[in-house]
């Protein structure tokens, strides 16, 4: 049975189960489908699902999104916001991509990249769309994972599902950190050095908790320095 044969409420209910790209494709099928898929009901739901923090009352005062969804329509608002967030997130992508596999990124620069994503208020869906891509540098995948886990507080099982869906769960990164040497009978021992090569999926599991904790804290307290690499574990460093 075609959607045009259903009551409008039933047709909207079915369409509301689709993703934005699928709704856009459906809207090309017929005049009825186009009218259905342009509905504010669908696009408001998609907008609030993707950006649950959004405050419609204050959107009109934003410097990057001068119009509110009330004045421009929810579909136009969704598309404009998607384009703007994708454009601004590319700054983080370009920053990470300047590092070659043989050039590790320092922990401070790594953490500043994640803070930049937080300033953009990227959602979990945004992070997946921008950073969970298999053709990107593994460091970008890691940044997206870490941002979702530590800043957005997304449950681990949901992150694992996203990693597997995007086919990046088995990609690996190397993390190296230096810890202040322990005191032994009044003498401080040599600084300790640890290197771990771990998959993205393992970072979310219990076996990778210590690595993710080091990445979250950076060079602080007993940790003197942190580096992250996508190549072999710092063979040339």
Helices and strands, with pairings:
Layout (H helix, E strand, L loop, with lengths): L7 H8 L4 H7 L4 H7 L2 H11 L5 H4 L9 H4 L1 H24 L7 E2 H14 L3 H8 L6 H14 L4 H10 L6 E8 L3 E2 L2 E2 L3 E8 H5 L4 H9 L5 E7 L8
Helix pairs in contact: 4-7, 7-8, 8-10, 9-10
* Form type: elongated
The level of helicity is 40-55%
What average pLDDT do the residues reach?
A: 83
Strand percentage lies at: 5-15%
Number of helices: 13
Q: Describe the main β-sheet briefly.
A: 4 strands, antiparallel
What oligomeric state best describes the polypeptide chains here? Answer: single chain
Radius of gyration: 22 Å
The computed structural class is alpha+beta
Which runs of at least 5 residues are low in confidence (pLDDT < 50)? none
Strand order of the largest sheet: 1-6-2-5
Distance between the termini: 64 Å
Secondary structure tally: strands: 6
Domain F-box: 1-46
InterPro entries: F-box-like_dom_sf (IPR036047), F-box_dom (IPR001810), FBXO4 (IPR039588)
GO cellular component, one term: SCF ubiquitin ligase complex
Keywords:
alpha+beta, 12% strand, 237 residues, four-stranded antiparallel beta sheet, two-stranded antiparallel ribbon
Walk me through this protein's architecture.
It is a single chain. The protein is α+β, with helices and mostly antiparallel strands and 237 residues long. The protein has a domain at 8-50. It contains 13 helices and six strands. The chain has helices at 8-15, 20-26, 31-37, 40-50, 56-59, 69-72, 74-97, 107-120, 124-131, 138-151, 156-165, 200-204, 209-217, and strands at residues 105-106, 172-179, 183-184, 187-188, 192-199, 223-229. It has a four-stranded antiparallel beta sheet. Strands 3-4 form a two-stranded antiparallel ribbon. β3 and β4 form a beta hairpin. α7 runs antiparallel to α8, α8 (107-120) crosses α10 (138-151) and α9 (124-131) runs antiparallel to α10 (138-151). The longest helix is centred in the middle third of the chain and has 24 residues, at 74-97. It starts with 7 loop residues before the first helix and ends in an 8-residue tail after the last strand. InterPro entries: F-box-like_dom_sf, F-box_dom, FBXO4. Residues 1-46 form the F-box domain. One of its GO terms (cellular component) is SCF ubiquitin ligase complex. It holds the Pfam family F-box.
């Amino acid at each position: 049975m075609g959607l045009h044969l259903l009551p409008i409420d039933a047709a909207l209910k079915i369409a509301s189960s689709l993703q934005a790209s699928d709704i856009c494709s459906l809207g090309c099928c017929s005049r009825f489908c186009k009218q259905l898929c342009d509905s504010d009901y669908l696009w408001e739901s998609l907008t609030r699902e993707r950006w649950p923090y959004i405050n419609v009352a204050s959107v009109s005062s934003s410097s990057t999104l001068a119009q509110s969804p009330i004045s421009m329509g929810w579909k136009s608002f969704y598309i404009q916001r998607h384009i703007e967030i994708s454009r601004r997130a590319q700054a983080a992508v370009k920053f990470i991509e300047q590092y070659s596999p043989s050039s590790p990124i320092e922990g401070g620069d790594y953490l500043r990249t994640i803070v930049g994503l937080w300033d953009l208020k990227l959602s979990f869906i945004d992070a997946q769309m921008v950073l969970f891509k298999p053709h990107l540098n593994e460091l970008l995948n890691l940044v997206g994972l870490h941002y979702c886990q530590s800043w957005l507080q997304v449950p681990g099982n949901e992150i694992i599902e996203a990693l597997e869906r995007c086919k990046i769960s088995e990609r690996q990164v190397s993390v190296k950190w230096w810890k202040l040497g322990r005191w032994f009978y009044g003498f401080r021992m040599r600084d300790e050095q640890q290197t771990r090569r771990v998959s993205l999926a393992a970072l979310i599991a219990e076996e990778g908790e210590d690595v993710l904790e080091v990445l979250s804290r950076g060079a602080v307290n007993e940790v003197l320095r942190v580096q992250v690499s996508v190549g072999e574990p710092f063979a040339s460093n």
